[in-house]
Automatic annotation (TrEMBL):
InterPro entries: eEFSec_C, eEFSec_III, EF-Tu_GTPase, EFTu-like_2, P-loop_NTPase, T_Tr_GTP-bd_dom, Transl_B-barrel_sf. This is Selenocysteine-specific elongation factor. GO terms for molecular function: GTP binding; GTPase activity; translation elongation factor activity. It catalyses: GTP + H2O = GDP + phosphate + H(+). The gene is LOC107667374. GO terms for biological process: selenocysteine incorporation.
Length: 579
């Protein structure tokens, strides 16, 4: 009996990224035969300006290439659908690109062959490095080059691009020249695009069987939402993880509601289910589509809404600014971008019996974190010179405190940027990236969770011995202000510049002076030093003993007192600790 199962299509997501006006939308249009609901600059503002303001999607299908038939195994696919994700190149919309880059299998970096690499091209390349492992470079607008010099100019730019990519994960990637819209966007559609057939052949050759995992919770990135009278609300987007079937219940976290799935379509064809990597339209029971233009849909209860988070951190090497604690950055996490205050810290490693303090291999993983560890506050992110003369980074983490709560999956990618810096400036605005390791879902996290985070700051105080009361006791001054609560410091150890150690017994008088007990007693030379420095310069006339003790010679070296301790930043008791 003949197999009557419908033909199966393998979906492959290709991101089209590049600088504004490099011709990404024209390229997607030239490649596509089926445009999905989101495609080709549907936004009126975008039409007016001729730029993509949101993730446009379109697709074209080809017979399954031979090399993929082998890697599909027993999964019977007969065609390959390239879903083109046209990401905006407009600088202020970088957050949209980061949202789109998470669902991309292969990236096409579109470069204007006349202008070469531009600021946003470089930013797209960085995002690609964080989110994607395969890339093709498209040198577009070759029709703008004089025909007699065209090939030489293309060869020169190809060479330049290979040099640019030499130290990235895309070293040696394919580079192809095309003219997606000869004459430019205003020109009538008379001239055929050039190089597109060759590009489709290259895409077919570069396509691979993407890793798709239907297990786990559903997470779908939503890019559009509209109503169909009498049927319900249609949500279109791409499944980032898990799978979806007709009759499933899904949650819309932004609206705090659940809805039942009535039907599922992939490029206008009804399907019973869809899985990770698929681009789908999902019809659910009615809600107001205006409330969810973008965002996520998930398995009920699977996403966390966070007020703060702990992340691993790596600096993006092209970022020129400082990464300082207490600074604010735009944080892109999940499908949201929100302002957050950042605080950096690194680990204080415990010593083993040999006196070494090296972490275990699991602990060395950048994505490992424990509330049991001791940490040290950093005023700014640390970079250091490596032996080879390059830049190295010790392992570091950061606490992010969001200006408004964000909804995101666990362990997701986090990108920090300065989107308020000059759009046209020739500087990279992407500052750091990392993984979300711990999320704080409690609004009162500063009282409930932060005290568990053992981040300390080292403190030093210095004062001077004012006088000796006996061989085992001295009075110190200038360590504390008059208003300091000295009870907090009682029992802490201090060291004198002459080598003796003692402890603070309590306050002396009302002006912040302290009494220090020296259990081993003062050395003879210390007593001599202190007695010589407290003898009065003779000026005639008798004075009482206490005033003699109060005065010091201007040229005498005072004996200084050193107090070192650490304080845990988030300890509600504000206790002082000494190692």
């Amino acid at each position: 009996m003949a197999d009557s199962s419908p033909p199966k299509t393998l979906n492959f997501n290709v991101g089209v990224l590049g600088h504004v006006d490099s011709g990404k939308t024209s390229l997607a249009r030239a490649l596509s035969s089926t445009a999905s609901t989101a495609a080709f600059d549907k936004n009126p503002q975008s039409k007016e300006r001729g730029i993509t303001l949101d993730l446009g999607f379109s697709a074209f299908t080809v017979p399954l290439p031979e090399h993929l038939k082998e890697s599909c195994g027993d999964r019977q696919y007969d065609s390959l659908q390239f879903t083109l994700v046209d990401c905006p190149g407009h600088a202020s919309l970088i957050r949209t690109i980061i949202g789109g880059a998470q669902i991309i299998d292969l990236m096409m970096l579109v470069v204007d062959v006349v202008k070469g690499m531009q600021t946003q091209t470089a930013e797209c390349l960085l995002i690609g490095q964080l989110t994607c492992s395969h890339m093709i470079v498209i040198l577009n607008k070759t029709d703008l080059l004089p025909s007699d010099k065209r090939q030489a100019a293309v060869d020169k730019m190809t060479k330049r691009m290979h040099k640019t990519l030499e130290n990235t994960r895309f070293k040696g990637c394919a580079i192809i020249a095309v003219a997606a819209k000869p004459g430019g966007p205003e020109f009538p559609e008379t001239d055929e695009p050039q190089g597109i057939t060759e590009l489709i052949d290259l895409l077919k050759a570069q396509a691979f069987f993407p890793h798709r995992d239907p297990s786990g919770s559903l997470l779908m990135a939503v890019d559009h939402c509209f109503s169909i009278r009498g049927q319900g609300t249609v949500i279109t987007g791409t499944i980032l993880q898990g799978s979806l079937c007709v009759n499933d219940t899904v949650e819309i976290p932004a609206l705090k509601v659940t809805r039942k799935v009535k039907s599922v379509q992939m490029f206008r064809k009804p399907v019973p289910s869809a899985m990770q990597g698929d681009r789908v339209g999902v019809c659910v029971t009615q809600f107001d589509p205006k409330l969810l233009e973008r965002g996520v849909v998930c398995t009920p209860g699977s996403l966390q809404t966070l007020f703060a988070a702990i992340i691993s951190v790596q600096k993006i090497e092209y970022y020129r600014g400082a990464l300082g604690s207490r600074a604010k950055f735009h944080i892109t996490v999940g499908h949201e971008t929100v302002m957050a205050r950042i605080s950096f810290f690194n680990r204080v490693l415990p010593r083993n019996e040999n006196g070494d303090c090296s972490p275990t291999s699991q602990e060395q993983s950048a994505n490992f974190f424990s509330f049991d560890w001791e940490f040290h506050h950093l005023d700014e992110f640390l970079t250091c010179q490596t032996e080879e003369g390059g830049r190295g980074e010790p392992q570091q983490w950061a606490l992010l405190e969001f200006e408004r709560p964000v909804t995101c999956p666990p362990l997701c990618l986090v990108i920090g940027s300065r989107l308020d810096s000059d759009i046209h400036g020739n500087t990279c605005r992407l500052a750091f990236h990392g993984k979300l390791l711990e999320g704080f879902e409690d609004k009162n996290y500063t009282e409930t969770t932060l005290p568990r985070l053992k981040i300390s700051k080292d403190k030093q105080k210095e004062g001077a011995v004012e006088r000796v009361t006996d061989d085992y006791t001295v009075i110190g001054r200038n360590l504390f202000k008059k208003e300091t609560n000295l009870q907090l410091f009682v029992g802490l150890k201090v060291t004198l510049s002459t080598g003796e150690t003692g402890s603070i017994e309590g306050g002396f008088g009302q002006s912040g002076k302290i009494k220090i007990r020296i259990p081993e007693g003062l050395k003879e030379e210390t007593k001599q030093l202190l007695s010589s420095s407290s003898k009065k310069k003779g000026k005639g006339g008798a004075k009482n003993e206490s005033s003699k003790l109060e005065e010091t010679k201007p040229d005498a070296q005072p004996v200084t007192i050193h107090l070192n301790f650490k304080r845990y930043i988030y300890d509600p008791q504000k206790k002082m600790v000494q190692s």
